[in-house]
Amino acid sequence: MISLQTKRRIDTALAVTALLTALTGIALHLKKHGILVEPCAVLKVVHYVVGFVMLACATLHASLTLRLMRPMGTKRPWFVRMAWLLLLLLAAGGVTGLLKLASPVKIPHLGLIHYWVGVGLTLSAAFHLGIALPWLVAKYRKRMT
């Protein structure tokens, strides 16, 4: 069993990396609209590295909270569906990002697909965090007292 402190660190790292991934993705998108963001190559590397760290943290987070999904599904089925959508978007973002990074040829429309997956991922992650964070903070406070 993983300690509560380790779980908090994973959840905190997930929130920070999700925010950094979204911000670097937005900065890279602004470059496409003519807003000069330099150094672009460094920003791309940061986006990929932070994105894959986010993917690892999200995988750990999901594996630790998966057992809570069944009981939560009876009380809040919409939250469980949104969590599964978030996992699906996370996997799609990771796959499209990896394809963009590793493909020796440019795949048509892959950047656009990755962009829209990123938008959906950011919005659903914000929704997920907005719903779950107060509940988790209250739960952590109860355990600490």
Structure description:
Helix content is 87%, strand content 0%. The protein has 145 residues and is mainly α. Helix 1 crosses helix 2 and helix 1 packs antiparallel against helix 4 (110-144). The longest helix is centred in the middle third of the chain and has 36 residues, at 40-75. The mean pLDDT is 88.
Annotation keywords:
single chain, 145 residues, mainly alpha, 4 helices
Outline the fold blueprint.
Blueprint: H1 4-32, H2 40-75, H3 77-102, H4 110-144
Helix pairs in contact: 1-2, 1-4, 2-3, 3-4
Give the gist of this structure.
The chain has helices at 4-32, 40-75, 77-102, 110-144. It is mostly helical and 145 residues long.
Task: Count every helix, treating DSSP H or I runs of 4 or more residues as helices.
Answer: 4
| Uncertain runs | none
Main sheet: strands, sense, barrel: none
* Radius of gyration (Å): 17 Å
**Amount of helix:** over 70%
